[in-house]
Amino acid sequence: MKRFIVVLISLLIIAVLGGLVVGIFFLITSSSEEISGKGAVATGTEECTKVAVEILQNGGSAVDSAITATLCQGVTVPQSSGLGGGFIAQVYIKETGVIETLNSREVAPLAATKDMYSDGGSSREGGLAIAVPGELKGLFELHKKYGKLPWKEVVEPVIKVAESGYKVANYMSSIFEDRGDKIKNYPGLKEVFVDPLTGELYKEGELIKNPKLANTLKVIAEEGADAIYGNGSLAQNIVKEIQDEGGIITMEDLLTFEPKWGKPVISKLFNEDTIYSFPLPGSGSIVAFILNVLQGFNFQDNTLEYHNENKLFYHRLVEALKFAFGKRTKLGDEMSAEVLSTLDELQSIEHAEYIRSLIDDEKTFNDYEHYGANYSVIEDHGTSHISILAPNGDAVAITTTINSIFGSYVVSESTGMIYNNEMNDFSIPTAVSDGLLPAPGNYIAPKKSPMSSMSPTIIVNDNKEVTMVVGGAGGILIMPSVTQFIIYNLYLQQSAQQAIELERLHHQLQPMRIQYEEALDSEIVKFLESKGHVMYPQSPTITGFAAIVAITRRNGKLDAAVDPRRGGHFEIF
């Protein structure tokens, strides 16, 4: 009997230790060290990363996991994402080597016209600023094509997050501090974000519950996309509420909304990896163009330390950004002759070589015409991003948005959804800026989406293995930030966390200055000033630099990182 007890205790000890070893192997949380994991999830909050990982552990696909994470960020990152907005996504299937894009961006209502704001109507706040939301319809479309688990099982974990609550992150807390009075002036926002016991906005680390949004998610779990885009329980109230706020969205807008499947922009990198970028109305073609221009300088042949000493790399980077933003002024969500011609240029290696030849290593230029800007710069706003890599090698990069922080500031009384203000991203014909006319390709038209800086990106090697899943949150700052992350990580061999934390430069051509992080080496700042650049320091605050969310693979080992500029969470397993 004693021998049996000893054996039993020994087996229990072995089981416990074995479980610990398996647990340690299975889940590595928020460490930037490269490990031999098989999958990874990176999102904007710990709650969303955990439920997305659980979906994968339960046999869900990369798309299932991405859907759960996206719905979750509508709960935990409501200032930037949610059912009242839209998204663009790339899906990679390793078995076939196929990658597809899905555009489920918000679109202008059927009653919209290009002159609808010329008489002073608000495109920033209120009902007239709301474009037709696309998030739920797009997520349901993704699930129909690539989902493995039942739809209800993908939604249920998010219901629990909304019911049990999520902790106020540092970034959200800083938004509350910055916009507290305004939040309190909007009843829908006040209901969610103000503690009824104290009358004050919730503080960092405190728990926010959203029972109204939880009830909406319960309906969506049962009815799917029809809840909003069919004859479901939510649609009629949504239309009435928006119209009561002065909006022009109708039932026909919801019933006729359709996400669009497409193909990515494809380009080869210096190491023969293939980069897949999101096409219009996203800005993946701009990211690919910048890389094609810079690759010809062969900067990958030297180390980051060399470039910090030599400094010319930074001047060339800024010049490439300026040419890229010049091209972007001609783009839009329509296939006009000018848009098609610009796209051809962006995807041409020969044209990238020509642009490279225009970069003067001795000086910069301060006129828009030199950089090809015929129109004013199209400036968009906040977003959130999710990167997923499943153990089977499939990947999803998805960037979501309600546009500005808290979108239109209109909250659905019946559903708890925060509605977007995406109409503000269109160009207004009467809005002349610095002598530049607005971009005709970005004028308002029914069922059209405005230009976006969102750039969800997937990079794949010759063995069909994903080597990077990356995207960013931060409006017009996304493209330069994603590009610099790719350069620092892939070209200059920095870890994911190192590549994210390196100080960034931003130049969007208008205004004619370099926006740079205050911690940037002062010698680099002086060098750029010597080339004629106007330098504008900025701290990485709420309105500062974009937040990168990334998963990478090098020599068979996974790495992941989230951006300390906003925070976030990842797990490698």
Q: What keyword list fits this structure?
A:
eight-stranded antiparallel beta sheet, alpha+beta, disordered N terminus, six-stranded antiparallel beta sheet, Serum Albumin, Chain A, Domain 1
Question: What's the short version?
Answer:
Among the domains are: 168-202, no CATH class; 262-380 and 458-566, Orthogonal Bundle (Serum Albumin, Chain A, Domain 1). Helix content is 38%, strand content 16%.
Word description of this protein:
It contains 19 helices and 19 strands. The radius of gyration is 24 Å and the shape is globular. An 8-stranded antiparallel β-sheet has the order 1-19-2-10-11-3-4-7. 38% of the residues lie in helices and 16% in strands. The N terminus is likely disordered. Among the domains are: 35 residues, no CATH class; 228 residues, Gamma-glutamyltranspeptidase, large (L) subunit, C-terminal domain (Serum Albumin, Chain A, Domain 1, Orthogonal Bundle), CATH 1.10.246. With 573 residues, the protein is of the alpha+beta class. It comes from Clunio marinus. GO terms for molecular function: glutathione hydrolase activity.
